[in-house]
Amino acid sequence: MRRSRGWAGLEWAVVPDSPPSRPPAHHVPGGFTNPGLSAPRTLGDLLRWRREALGKTVPPPEAYDFPLCPNDPAFLRGNGTTPTVTAKPTVTWIGHATLLVQMGGRNVLTDPHFTARCSPVPWAGPRRAAPPGLAVADLPPIHLVVISHDHFDSLDRGSIRLLAGREGGAETVFVVPLGLGPYVRAWGARRVVELDWWQAADAHGLVVTAVPAQHWSKRHLVGRNRTLWAGFAVAAPGFAFLFCGDSGYPGDFREIGRRLGPFDLAAIPIGAYAPRWFMGPYHMNPEEAVRVHADVRAARSVAMHWGTFVLTDEPLDEPPRRLAEARERAGLKADAFRALAHGETWVLA
Predict the structure, then answer these.
(1) Which pLDDT score is estimated for 8?
(2) Contact, 193 vs 174, CB < 8 A?
(3) Domain span at residue 246?
């Protein structure tokens, strides 16, 4: 194995000394695929879903009143930044799939989304049911940003520009799946690493490994699955974190747990699952999320990908209720797998 270097202090990726004799199974001409997923969704399936939705009443964003949890930006900024302050591992749910994770004295941000809509335009598309639980101005210095795929609720142009343009933003390392580098570079990110599944990079002392997810990509009217999708395992001395990204079940979660687990914390999606006939291959439900918690060997898990944007047919406040029921059936304690309030910080003892 050898390491491909980008600049001093950042190693781009761990790659084989010689190329494999054949492409990985998820590589296909012109893009990527989900190995073992025999029936990807078609345009006809999408149109059927939208026809069926005409007979349903899905509550709009203003139907919800998600309380913001008061947070302490001064604590987050000072956590482990000086030799006299011992770094405490924490996770703060900012909303949807955006989490601030503090580990090993480093600050990690996942799928950053701070703008009002997940849309290619600012005047249309799904709008937030709750504001970000932590403003960009209140964030501590961000060492690492991981982005799972190219959909507008995960790859947000306005948020990337805000992060890249803030003080210290030039030092932030953006780690993305194959094909997403041109986007984030065009929006101001200076330190960008693209990874294939199971490749790893070193960023500010954190070892970041891209892991498989069962999802898809499409950002424009034409061109499906031309960029890769992924989750990320992030390791610091004494702490391991898994960000699952968007994924259906079962995917490769047991293999992720076998290779890289156990994890001190896993961020697992619990929303955007209805109707199951359409969403099932690409979005897990809360019951499947509890299985992922076991599959990856997580000590604790935090729920994400819910409660912020109306993307599918289930009510926004349904996923945490179903999570609590599934957790109880599995015999897990309440603090083994939590759904936080917007802005809530969980200090991980």
Answers:
(1) 33
(2) yes
(3) 67-347
Report the alpha-carbon angle 154-158-163, nearest 5. Answer: 90
pLDDT at 36: 81
Write the CATH number for 280. 3.60.15.10
Residue 18 has which token pair? 């010689």
Mean pLDDT per 10-residue section of the chain, whose length is 349 residues: 40 47 89 84 74 81 94 92 74 98 96 96 92 97 98 97 96 98 98 98 97 94 91 97 97 97 98 91 97 98 97 95 98 97 95
Two tokens, residue 241: 């974190």
Separation of alpha carbons 320 and 316, rounded Å: 9
Q: Answer whether residue 97 is part of any domain.
A: yes
User: Rounded to whole angstroms, how far apart are CA atoms 288 and 344?
Assistant: 24
Number of neighbours of residue 35 by Cβ within 10 angstroms? 13
Let me know if 171 is exposed, middle or buried by CB neighbors in 10 A (0-12, 13-18, 19+).
Answer: middle
Q: What pLDDT does residue 108 have?
A: 98
Predicted confidence at residue 13, as pLDDT, reads: 52
Amino acid 24 reads P
Q: Which residues, other chains included, contact 323 with Cβ-Cβ below 8 Å and sequence gap of 6+? A: 270, 286, 289, 290, 303, 337, 339
24 located within any domain? no
| Largest CA-CA distance found in the chain, in angstroms, rounded | 60
In a domain, 19, yes or no: no
Which pLDDT score, from 0 to 100, does residue 85 have?
Answer: 60
